[in-house]
């Protein structure tokens, strides 16, 4: 259980923050960018939820909780050469294949009710869909940062898989919330030449 009694620590005043295990990194490190972008996408989903209800809102509530798991995962090295005394244990919070599978199952269920796309969609249609498009693009940024971090850091590969699937889920959900695609805003190539 998390218990926060003091919000500021002054520990980051010189531009560094701590990973789980204690290693200090600059706040602009690509690993920090990755979980910072996850946090940003989660905030945008929170705004979108102001316009959702029922099953869509239930899915987004689960996703928001998963995103905190994901942030904790990205903040916890799988191994840490800079801190050899740190070894993640069985209590280490990691994103799991079952969370990825849940996203895939939800994507398949929603997509089965949608007409095939005839063009790319533009962000919009409804408030919730517009915000979820924004969350999708921030999620893609988090995925890029996580992939960059994985080139030099120990990152859980399932975390990257989750980010990839999450952006797909958010895209399908935008269409689902746009009257099952009927209110999608479609791109018309070259329309304004």
Describe the structure.
The structure is a single chain. The chain is mainly alpha-helical. It has one domain (25-82, 95-114, 121-182): Cobalamin adenosyltransferase-like (Hypothetical Protein Ta1238, Chain: A, Up-down Bundle), CATH 1.20.1200. The protein has five helices and four strands. The protein has helices at 30-48, 54-74, 97-111, 127-150, 157-177; strands at 16-18, 24-26, 121-122, 185-186. The strands form two sheets. The chain has a two-stranded antiparallel ribbon. Strand 1 and strand 2 (24-26) form a beta hairpin. The longest helix is centred in the last third of the chain and has 24 residues, at 127-150. It is elongated and about 55 Å long. The N and C termini lie far apart (58 Å). The model has no long low-confidence stretch (mean pLDDT 89).
Overview features:
mainly alpha, two-stranded antiparallel sheet, 5 helices
**Count of structural domains:** 1
Q: What is CATH's topology name? A: Hypothetical Protein Ta1238, Chain: A
What's the rounded overall pLDDT mean? Answer: 89
Estimated structural class: mainly alpha
| Overall 3D shape | elongated
Count of beta strands:
4
Whole-angstrom Rg: 19 Å
Q: Give the ordered list of helices and strands.
A: EEHHHEHHE
CATH architecture: Up-down Bundle
Write the CATH homologous superfamily.
Answer: Cobalamin adenosyltransferase-like
Strand order of the largest sheet: 1-2
Strand content: 5-15%
Q: Could you describe the largest sheet, including whether it forms a barrel? A: 2 strands, antiparallel
How many distinct helices?
Answer: 5
Q: Provide the CATH top-level class.
A: Mainly Alpha
Low-confidence stretches: none
């Amino acid at each position: 259980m998390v218990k926060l009694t003091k919000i500021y620590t002054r520990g980051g005043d010189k531009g560094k923050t701590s990973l789980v295990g204690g290693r200090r990194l600059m706040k602009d490190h690509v690993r920090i960018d990755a979980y910072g972008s996850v946090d940003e996408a989660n905030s945008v989903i929170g705004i979108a939820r102001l316009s959702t209800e029922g099953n869509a809102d239930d899915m987004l509530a689960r996703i928001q909780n998963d995103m905190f798991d994901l942030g904790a995962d990205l903040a916890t090295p799988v191994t840490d050469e800079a801190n050899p005394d740190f070894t993640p244990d069985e209590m280490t919070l990691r994103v799991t294949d079952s969370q990825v599978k849940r996203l895939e199952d939800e994507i398949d269920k929603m997509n089965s009710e949608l007409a095939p796309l005839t063009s790319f969609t533009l962000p919009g249609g409804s408030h919730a869909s517009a915000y979820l498009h924004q969350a999708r693009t921030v999620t893609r940024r988090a995925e890029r940062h996580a992939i960059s971090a994985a080139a030099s850091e120990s990152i859980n590969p399932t975390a990257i898989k989750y980010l990839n699937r999450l952006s797909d889920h958010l895209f399908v959900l935008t269409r689902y919330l746009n009257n099952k695609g009927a209110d999608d805003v479609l791109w018309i190539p070259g329309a304004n030449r």
